Amino acid sequence: MARVVTRPTVVITRRLPDEVEAAVAERYDVRFNRTDVALTAEQMAQVLRTTDIVLCTVTDKLRAELFDARVQTKLLANFGVGVNHIDRDAARRAGVAITNTPDVLTDDTADIALALILMSMRRLGEGERHLRSGAWSGWRPTHLMGRSPHGKTLGIIGYGRIGRAVARQAASALGMHIVYYAPRDVVIDDPATAGPALAERVDSIETLLARADVVSLHCPSTPETRHLINAERLALMGPTSYLVNTARGDIVDEYALTAALREGVIAGAGLDVYEWEPTVVAELRDMERVVLLPHMGSGTIETRTAMGLRALANIDAFVAGERPPDLVEF
Ligand code: 8YV
Q1: Considering only CA atoms, which residue is closest to atom 9 of ligand 1?
Q2: pLDDT in tens, 256-301
Q3: pTM greater than the 0.85 cutoff
Q4: Residue 311, pLDDT score
Q5: Are 63 and 41 in contact (CB under 8 A)?
Q6: 298 CA to middle of ligand 1, Å?
C-alpha cells in the first residue's frame, strides 16, 4: 500500500455529522464543502489533482475521464457500501484505492426495506396523504384495505448482509416465508448475520419472481445487474405482488416499472432509490400505488456517524501504510 505524506490533505465532499467532521479534522488537513451541494465534474477534477484523500459519497460521479495523469489522490474513502458511482477500473489504472463502509449500515437499511414492505402492502403513504388532504370522512369497513404480509412469501435478490437482515426481520416480525436468489454461495463469517434457518434458495430469478408476493432487491449495481428487473420480469411477478428497492435505482428499469404499475401488472412498489437520482419519473410521483422515499436507507444519526468513523478508520490504516479494513477488491 502506497504511503502518503505526513499530514495528508483530505477533502470531505458533503456535510457529515459534526462528530465525524471533528474527528477527521483532528488528524488531517481537511477541506470541507460547507455549501453541501454536490461537486461538479470540474470541481471534482480539481479536488483529485490537489488532494491526497477524498472522502466521497454516492453523489460524486467519479467517471473514467476524471482519473487522468494529473490525479494526486491515492484513496477514495467512500461513505457508503455501494461504489457504483466510481469507475473502479479507471481508479485502479490511476493507482487510486477505494474503501467503503459495510456492516455499520446493515440494520438501518434493512429497516427501511421492511418499512417499504409495510408501507406499500398496507397503503400507509396513501392513508397519510388522504388524511392530510382533509378528505377523511371517518372509519368504514372497506376503506383503504391493503394486503397482509403474514404468511406471504418474500423473495430476496442478493443475499449479502442487508438481504439476510431483511430476511431475518421479515420472517420474525412479519411472519413471511423467505426465498432468495444469490448467484454465488453465500459466505457467512458470523452466524449472527445468517439468514433465517427456513430460508430457501431458488435457482433462478425467474423462479423467485414467480413464487414471491414481495420482491426486495439487495444486490449491488454492476453492469450485469443493470435493469435486472425489466418489463419481462415484472410480468412474471403478477398483479398482487410488490417490488421493494433499497439497493440502487438502475437495477430496475424505471420506465418499465412505471408502466407495470400503471397497467396493474404488479400491485405496488416501495422505492428508496432511483435510476436518475434525484430525478424521479414524473408519473411515479402522481401514483398512489408506489411509496417513494428520498434515499434514506442508512439515514440515522447513529449509522451516519458510524459510517463516517468507519471511513476515517480506513483513511487511518491507509495513511499508516496498512491494508484498510474495507478495501474494495477489484
Ligand atoms: C448511503 C447507500 O447513504 O451505503 C450505501 O451504498 O446507499 C447509503 O447507505 C449513501 O451511499 C451515501 O454515500
Answers
A1: 298
A2: 999 999 999 999 999 999 999 999 999 999 999 999 999 999 999 9
A3: yes
A4: 98
A5: yes
A6: 6
Q: Could you give the CA distance from residue 99 to residue 89 in angstroms, rounded to a whole number? A: 14
* Plot region of 261 (φ>0 → left; ψ -120 to 50 → alpha; else → beta): alpha
Residue type, 98: I
Round to whole Å and give the CA distance between 203 and 192: 25
> How many degrees, rounded to 5, is the angle at CA 111 between CA 109 and CA 113?
75
Which atom of ligand 1 is nearest to 298's Cα?
A: 9
Q: Please tell me the distance from the alpha carbon of residue 116 to that of residue 217, in angstroms, as a whole number.
A: 12
With a cut of 50, which residues of the chain have pLDDT below it? Answer: none
Partners of 15 in beta bridges: none
Centre of ligand 1 from the C-alpha of residue 100, in Å: 10
Cα–Cα nearest to 287, from 273, 310, 267: 267
235, 265 Cβ separation under 8 angstroms: yes
Cα–Cα distance between 34 and 22 in angstroms, integer? Answer: 14
How far apart CA 32 and CA 324 sit, in angstroms, is 23
Residue linked to cell 434493512: 110
**What is the predicted pLDDT for the residue at 189?**
79
Distance CA 237, CA 260 (A): 10
Residues lining ligand 1, CB < 6 A?
Answer: 57-58, 79-82, 105, 109, 297-298
For the record, the C-alpha cell of 93 comes out as 489504472
Q: Which atom of ligand 1 is nearest to the CA of 303?
A: 9
Say if CB 261 and CB 120 are below 8 A apart.
no
What amino acid positions are annotated as catalytic residues?
248, 277, 295
Q: Which residues of 261-270 are buried (b: 16+ CB within 10 A; e: fewer)?
A: beeebbbbbb
Q: How far is CA 309 from CA 102, 162, 316, in A?
A: 12, 20, 10
